[in-house]
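To the structural biology subgroup,

Please find below the input and predicted structure for DUF6593 domain-containing protein, which we are adding to the shared reference set this quarter. The sequence is reproduced verbatim from the submission form. If anyone notices a discrepancy with their own records, reply to this email rather than editing the shared folder directly, so we keep one authoritative version.
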Amino acid sequence: MMRRPLPLTFEDRTAQLTNTDFDELYDRLFFHVMRSPGSNITRIYDMVIRASRYRSTLPLNRDPIIELEFLPNESLGTISFLKGPYQGSIHMGRYLRKTAFFGTSLSRKFMASDGREYKWGYRTNPGQEWTCTTMDNTLVAHYDLKNPNHRFYDVSGNNLIVYEPWAHIVSEIIASCIIMRHIAQFNL
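Predicted structure (tokenized):
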């Protein structure tokens, strides 16, 4: 019997773009996404513990790893990588470029810190709300919303699955997924 690593399975606690937690099912990684009231900057934090009622009452005493600054009208602004192999800022429209000149805004590609290009597509695979692939269509990650016809107990039912070979760019996958969902929500 051949054993393969389990994909990183993140529960998206609220499925909101500005206030949620991505907690890995097997307690390997935890991310917190937060936008302060009245702010247009969404911050992504690498956390050391799973989201809980207790953690939410504590002040955040760490620095974000990525900031997504949207313009006041919610149009695309800049993405800033504050930690990791690539540090710097770039306009979101340049970071997540359309895959075709006259193509839909819901199909975009980005260059990750590993030097490879990846693309996001909206509802390109059955059962997947968002699908991230390599440029040669190898599945990297997918974001799935809960099925409204199924009951979920103690979990949200919203998941981001990142396959193990791409675990090294998981924060970039989360950030680009949030931007893609933002583009869809605000018809950008």
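Summary notes: The two ends are 47 Å apart (CA to CA). Residues 44 and 136 are 29 Å apart (CA to CA).

Regards,
Lab coordination
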